[in-house]
User: Fold this.
Amino acid sequence: MRRFIAVLLAALMVISFAACTQKPAESSKPESAAEPQNLLDTIKARGSLIIATEGAWAPWTYHDENDKLVGLDIEIGQLLADGLGVKAEFAETNWEAILSGVSSGRFDIACNGVGYSEERAKSYNFSDPYVYDRTVLVVRSDNDTIKTFDDLKGKKTTNSPNSLYAQKALDYGATVEYVDTLNETLAMVIDGRVDATINAEVSVNDYLKEHPDAPIKVVYKDQGAPIAFPVRKDASTETLIAEINRILEEARSSGKLAEISMKYFGLDLTTP
Assistant:
C-alpha cells in the first residue's frame, strides 16, 4: 500500500510540473487590432459620416427640380465628411426623429439648421456656430392684431415638434399645432387654421421667392441666433467636435463658408 501511494504521488507531481511549464495559449486577436475609442475613430473605421437631415426645409436641406438632395446643410455636411476623409452618408428623416437619433447613436451628427441653446447643450455636444439666423414672426396678410411675440398669448401657432420655434411660441403663451414641413406650416397660416408661426427668416424668404403672391407677411424679426451641429452628449464625441471645428474654421478663413451662405441665402450669415 505504501508503495502504491508513493507511485501515485510521483505521478501527480509529474502532471503538476507539466501543467506549470505549459505555455499559455496565445490570443487569437492581433495586438494591433485596437477597438475604436471614440466616435471619430468609429467614423473613420466605418469610412462614412452618417448625417441626419430633413430634406424638406429649403434652403437648408431640400430636393431640387431633379430630385437631388441639396441645400446649405448638405454642402457643409459634405465639407465636413471631406475634411474627415470619409464619405458623407445623408439619412433623411423627419425633424422629430433627428435629435433623438443623434442621442441614440443612429446618426453621428445632425445637419439641419439646428439652433443652439443652453437647454439643448445639456443634452448634446455642439460644434461652433456655422451661421447665424434671425427668427421671424409670420401672420396672414390681413392679420393686424399680432405685431410682436408678446401678442401670441392665447393664440394658435404651428411648428415642427421639439423645435426652438415651437418652444418660443409656448414661452409666449401660445398653443402649438405640430406639423413636419415649412410648406405645411405656412399653409396652416394662410388657411386661417392658426394665427401665426415663428420660423427662420431665410426659410420664409425662400418660400416667398417661390410663392410671391402668398397672403402672408413678416411682422417682427429678432436678432440672429447661432446655428450649430449637434452630436451625442458624452466624452466619446469630443475629438469629433474638435475636428469639425477645425474644418469649419478652415472653411471660414478661406471664404468657402461665406460662399455657401451666399449661394443659398443670398446673404453672408456666417458671422453674428
Summary: The chain has two domains: 39-132+227-265, 135-222. The first strand starts at residue 48 and ends at 53. Residues 39-132+227-265 form a domain with the D-Maltodextrin-Binding Protein; domain 2 fold (CATH 3.40.190.10).
